[in-house]
Amino acid sequence: MKILKFNLLSLIVILGLVLSSCSSDDDSSGNQNPDTYIKFTIDGTAYNFTDILTAESGVITLNGNNGAGLTDPGDTQIALWMPLAISNGAFDVEDSFTAEYQVSFTSDALNFDFDFAESGTMNLTQTTGEYIEGTFTATVTNDDDTTITIENGEFKAYGIE
Fold it and tell me: What is the pTM of this model?
């Protein structure tokens, strides 16, 4: 029994040393990529989302949220939708399934549940190279007919190549 206790204690000590010597690649600050962002204001309240996720399927989407990340998106999210063949220029944001430029907005606090902007603009200033950058505005109405205006929108996210 003494040998079993000694072996078990030895195993626990060795395991503890091994685990404590492992390093983590996680950035504990929560800002894994502070160079990417989506910023905007609604009724004077500023929103600043960092570590933007760029995704591609039939379109390019730039996704931002006020949570800790994709698995914990927080209570407010925004997505900017644009075609795969993007270029610099000013484009209208529309609420249509076939629209090339769209903005979707979700906010538990403001009672918006994945609502699309019915109007706005998206001005792309950099569409080649490492980043996609630009500005945007949007007007969004929820199912309760509450309308918000997203103003002073700016974004910088990794491009798809």
Answer: 0.77
